[in-house]
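hiii so um. not sure if this is the right channel but i have a protein structure encoded as tokens and i wanna go backwards to a sequence. like what aa goes where. can anyone help
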């Protein structure tokens, strides 16, 4: 179980903070004896594990802790397919949503809890894992956030080679209690840590039973599920009637993503006028103002429902009406998703708004995603259930 710390990065418009980008990072421990510690984001939307290298001179690397292969007695150089190599020569370029990195390959001992005693084994949350040591990192998004690296938890197709898919590597662990699953919890309260668990899930973070949905087209590498029907305020929308809509559970996205050609219509459906004077708007948080529900009906009879509390932009907008009078409007915070060959033209991204409301479990062996309503109580007791 790895606790996650939340970082806020403000998004400003006309000098005002209208929303925040967020990132949730946890500590990992690389190498043994002389351990190097790093904060990482666990991202289901990417397929590689990377850390900044001491050989990186990019401005974005200077503000982060950097991995030094020369300090490690457990590191081994490998090539692009994971085969042993005498030195680091093969190079890879990896793109993320708003940036990219370039780096080399290393096999290293990685622990998800601080190693104790004289040995670092699977029983203690450790495994030998292939990772990328970044020699170049773009300023965006990496300069904006305090985390050092990214642990990609996407399915195998998102990695350059199956041997670099971290969960594919974790499934080789012979520890009898390790199950090929991980689970993700985002807390509503900053004083209660969010968490990710490996090898099971934490029932203390659930207030309903898990409902499972099969991954649609797992060969694409995303934890995506089919949307059978999409409704807003109880009315089914035509946009998904052709059966081509999918929803991707993405722990690396702060917002609710919607297909770009659909965002304008969805904004109109979710906007609501607030009966307050413009002078009162500075005191209003739109997340506390009710809005119509978005209902995603998925395979297996599973429903994911998001309300105004989940999708709203906190700051209201002042919009002139037909009489040129200012009115206060609450709007959704949506991320336009461009069509790509892998995502298709009708992909929704269920990022942080969904992950705060639902506890999610990702089953690598069955290629399924489990959804349960999240429990946001203050009880921090933990009990991992192995399915």
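sure thing!! here u go:
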């Amino acid at each position: 179980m790895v606790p996650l710390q939340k970082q806020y990065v403000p998004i400003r418009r006309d000098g005002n903070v209208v929303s925040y980008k967020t990132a949730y990072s946890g500590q990992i421990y690389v190498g043994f004896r002389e351990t190097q510690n790093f904060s990482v984001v666990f991202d289901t939307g990417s397929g590689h594990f990377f850390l900044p290298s001491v050989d990186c001179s990019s401005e974005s690397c200077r503000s982060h802790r950097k991995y030094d292969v020369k300090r490690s007695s457990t590191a081994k150089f490998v090539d692009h397919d994971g085969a042993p190599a005498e030195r680091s020569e093969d190079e890879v370029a990896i793109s993320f949503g708003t940036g990219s990195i370039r780096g080399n390959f290393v096999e290293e001992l990685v622990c998800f809890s601080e190693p104790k005693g004289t040995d670092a084994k699977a029983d203690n949350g450790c495994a030998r894992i292939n990772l990328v040591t970044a020699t170049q990192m773009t300023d965006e998004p990496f300069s904006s956030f305090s985390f050092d690296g990214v642990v990609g938890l996407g399915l195998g197709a998102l990695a350059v080679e199956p041997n670099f898919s971290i969960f594919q590597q974790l499934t080789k662990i012979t520890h009898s209690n390790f199950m090929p699953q991980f689970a993700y919890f985002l807390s509503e309260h900053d004083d209660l840590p969010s968490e990710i668990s490996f090898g099971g899930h934490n029932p203390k973070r659930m207030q309903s039973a898990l409902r499972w949905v099969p991954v649609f087209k797992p060969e694409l590498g995303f934890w995506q599920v089919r949307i059978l029907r999409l409704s807003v305020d109880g009315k089914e929308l035509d946009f998904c009637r052709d059966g081509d809509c999918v929803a991707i559970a993405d722990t690396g996205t702060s917002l609710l993503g919607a297909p770009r050609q659909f965002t304008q219509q969805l904004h109109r459906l979710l906007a609501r006028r607030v009966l307050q004077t413009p002078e009162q708007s500075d005191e209003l948080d739109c997340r506390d103002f009710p809005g119509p529900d978005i209902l995603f009906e998925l395979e297996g009879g599973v429903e994911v429902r998001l309300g105004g509390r989940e999708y709203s932009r906190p700051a209201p907008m002042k919009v002139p009406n037909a009489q040129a009078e200012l009115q206060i409007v609450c709007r959704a915070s949506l991320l336009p998703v461009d069509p790509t060959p892998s995502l298709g033209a009708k992909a929704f991204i269920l990022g942080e708004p969904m992950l705060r409301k639902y506890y999610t479990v990702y089953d690598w062996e069955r290629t399924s995603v489990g959804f349960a309503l999240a429990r946001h109580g203050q009880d921090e007791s933990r009990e991992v259930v192995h399915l």
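oh and The CA atoms of residues 295 and 305 lie 5 Å apart.
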